[in-house]
Design a protein that fits this description.
Layout (H helix, E strand, L loop, with lengths): L1 H10 L10 E2 L3 E2 L1 H13 L21 H9 L1 E2 L8 E5 L6 E9 L5 E6 L3 E6 L2 H5 L1 E6 L4
Antiparallel strand pairs: 1-2, 3-8, 4-5, 4-8, 5-6, 6-7
InterPro entries: NLP_P60_dom, Papain-like_cys_pep_sf, Phage_pept_NlpC/P60
Protein name: NlpC/P60 family protein
Keywords: Hydrolase, Protease, Thiol protease
């Protein structure tokens, strides 16, 4: 499954960034990327996605993204291509970004939807690694 997830994630590269979007080629945000890959393998999403603002989760400190990932994805005890990575963008803040790990080792990289950049593949550099708040896997098909 991991190779299929990696191929699916890379197929989204070049999709423009659109807040709350989740359509390959048309527009997506980081959550929409993971939602779109979910639909590719499992069909309908497991729950309706509520409307969210760019600053969601910052008030009250509720870990909405980590909680949602834990409800529908499996914890990943080790690092494998195809893992869903959840990031904190600042120390002490709630997790608000996610992407798909596509390469491991010295050339580690991940695919993510990034504001003003769209869906890109980025090196999983030390600063990005330090931001990882959770690692998950899609369930088996």
């Amino acid at each position: 499954m991991s190779a299929a997830v990696v191929a699916a994630a890379r197929a989204w590269i070049g999709t423009p960034y659109v807040h709350q979007g989740s359509v390959r080629g048309a527009g997506t945000d980081c959550l929409g990327l993971v939602r779109g890959i979910w639909r590719e393998f499992f069909g309908a999403e497991p729950e309706a996605m509520p409307t969210y603002t760019p600053d969601w989760g910052e008030v009250g400190g509720v870990e909405l993204l980590l909680g949602g990932a834990a409800r529908f994805l499996l914890p990943a005890p080790d690092e494998r291509p195809g893992d869903v990575l959840v990031f904190r963008m600042r120390v002490g803040s709630v997790a608000k970004h996610m992407g798909i790990l596509v390469e491991i080792g010295e050339q580690a990289s991940f695919v993510h939807a990034y504001d003003r950049h769209g869906v890109v593949e980025s090196p999983l550099s030390a600063p990005w690694r330090a931001r990882i708040a959770g690692r998950f896997r899609f369930p088996p098909v």
